[in-house]
């Protein structure tokens, strides 16, 4: 799938902005921004932007596919969290924000989302199914973007895909819809009891491909710590698709809590 694995920013146009100035600031190009947001006919005159437009700004940086949101005037952490179907508490935690009521214009925030480049034949319904989200969730994530329409999508347009989280776990790797193999990295942020994060992998037939394992995050609750582990296959998958489970166990009764499910391919 044409998932963009390079760093991208979500930027809200302000009075006086030009595409060339935005491109220079974030290490992009005018052509890349115009293509990513379909800033040409029939959507708009070539390169025409207005204050309040929400743009995806692609870059050539390859350190992470997870999106960075640039705080705009009037933003609140609650509103930004709502765009990505997560909580302001989680956003504050992963971005080390001590006071959720105090964010500043121009501040860069890591958010649970990535970019998918639309190809010919795609539909929002098909895209949503592939990534385990709903069409409504995609629409909310892309609200305010000049080239986004519910009923017409353009090849090469860069679509924001939210990454669904639980209250206390955000999986950054693998991305939903990824093709994985034995030894795949499992990474993300977690606020869990004694910093222990559990994971397992099941294929579409319910066969356990990777038995339950655990990894320690680098910080325990109440902080959100980063975790990283490998995903060895204990048996060969019996289907072409599967689901990665990442979760914690209740200190009370050992039941699964904070479960995040990531759709994957083999």
Automatic annotation (TrEMBL):
Q: Which domain of life is it from?
A: Bacteria
Q: LysM domain: from which residue to which, for each copy?
A: 9-57, 67-111, 114-161
Q: Which CDD domains match?
A: LysM
| Span of the signal peptide | none
The record's section on Gene3D superfamilies has: LysM domain
> HTH cro/C1-type domain spans which residues?
117-138
Cross-referenced SUPFAM superfamilies: LysM domain (SSF54106)
User: What is the protein name for this chain?
Assistant: LysM peptidoglycan-binding domain-containing protein
* Native species: Fictibacillus fluitans
């Amino acid at each position: 799938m044409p998932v963009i694995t390079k760093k991208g920013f979500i930027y809200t146009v302000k009075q006086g902005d030009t595409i060339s100035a935005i491109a220079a600031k974030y290490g992009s190009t005018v052509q890349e921004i115009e293509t990513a947001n379909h800033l040409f006919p029939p959507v708009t005159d070539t390169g025409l932007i207005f204050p309040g437009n929400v743009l995806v700004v692609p870059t050539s940086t390859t350190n992470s596919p997870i999106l960075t949101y640039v705080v705009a005037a009037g933003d609140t952490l609650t509103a930004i969290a709502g765009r990505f179907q997560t909580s302001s508490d989680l956003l504050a935690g992963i971005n080390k924000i001590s006071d959720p009521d105090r964010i500043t214009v121009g501040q860069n925030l890591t958010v649970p989302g990535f970019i998918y480049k639309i190809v010919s034949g795609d539909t929002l319904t098909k895209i949503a199914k592939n990534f385990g989200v709903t069409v409504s969730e995609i629409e909310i994530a892309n609200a305010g973007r000049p080239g986004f329409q519910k009923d017409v999508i353009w090849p090469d347009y860069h679509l924001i895909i939210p990454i669904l989280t639980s209250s206390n776990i955000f999986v950054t790797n693998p991305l939903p819809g990824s093709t994985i193999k034995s030894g795949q990295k499992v990474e993300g942020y977690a606020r869990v009891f004694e910093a222990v994060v559990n994971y397992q992998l099941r294929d579409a037939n319910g066969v356990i491909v990777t038995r339950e394992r655990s990894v320690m995050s680098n910080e325990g609750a109440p902080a959100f710590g980063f975790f990283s582990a490998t995903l060895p296959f204990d048996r060969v998958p019996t289907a072409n698709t599967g689901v990665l489970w990442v979760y914690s166990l209740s200190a009370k009764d050992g039941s699964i809590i904070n479960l995040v499910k990531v759709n994957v391919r083999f």
